[in-house]
Amino acid sequence: MYYLRSSKVNFAKTLPKLLPALCLLGLVGCQPAQSRVEPNTSFQSQTLVVSGRGMVDIPKTNARVSLGVQVQGETSGLVQQELAKRSQAVVNLLKTRQDVTKLETTSITLNPRYDPKDGKQIGYYATNIVRFQIAPEKIGALLDEAIKTGATRIDGITLVASDEAIAAAQKQAIDAASKDARSQADAALSALQLKQQEIVSIQINGARPPIPVPMQMADLIQKAAPMNLASTPVVAGEQRIEAFVTLQVRYQPTQN
After folding, report:
1. Which of 18, 81, 143, 205 is the most exposed place for a label (fewest CB within 10 A)?
2. Which region is the signal sequence (predicted)?
3. Nearest CA among 210, 204, 203, 192 for reference residue 254
4. What share of the chain is helix, strand, coil (3-state, %, to 5)?
5. Residue (of 148, 129, 128) closest to 83 by Cα position
């Protein structure tokens, strides 16, 4: 008969000897990947973008007038002769006036004329349009003279400031817009207790006057219609010049 004997292990004596080896194996097998966080010691600056507006109102001292002659007839030759005769008379009148400036011809046209009933050609009509400038208060009297001389139509009257006044106002508007933008930047940074470093970019978004709107006088002159434009008052008013300036300002954030 055989007997199996189990040997007893005294763990109380053996464990202290095995513990260093077990700890070493555990550290090697279970150690996580290491990561290092470097503190960001650099202190980068930031920018603020502001936009300023400048406005300057200047008087409208000039009137741009477009007027002309329109004639019609059975043949193109007769129409052209009559157009040239009347147009020359109107141009001569304008040239004799010292208060008329920038006189120029803007268009000359010759077109067939058709019967609205059956669509057949019944002749021709021609136009000659000139443009010039004059003081607004002198428009009425000059147009009366032009009608008597041979003008048959007014294509438009636009009241504007002089070129010199517009150029000077553009500079003033840009100056005002720049100061407005700078004032906004100073106020914002001061309120947030931030330190301004420098202006890194400047953008001028135009300094142009609005497009003038012509007075509604087109085709008011009829060949045989009696008119007295000299008695019609013309109030020129003012023209506004605007400019916008955008600044990008670098500032230093507050360090905590």
Report:
1. 18
2. 1-35
3. 192
4. 35, 35, 30
5. 128
Q: Tell me the pTM.
A: 0.62
| Average pLDDT over the chain, rounded to an integer | 79
Which three-class secondary structure state does DSSP give residue 6? Answer: coil
Dist. CA 62–CA 119, nearest whole Å:
44
Q: Residues 128-144: pLDDT tens digits?
A: 999 999 999 898 889 98
Q: Which domains does the chain have, with CATH numbers?
A: 44-60+162-217+236-256 (3.30.110.170), 62-160 (3.30.70.2970)
CA 207 remoteness from chain centre: 8
- Take residue 193 and report the two structure tokens written for it: 């207790």
**Smallest Cα–Cα separation from 50: which of 205, 255, 241, 207?**
205
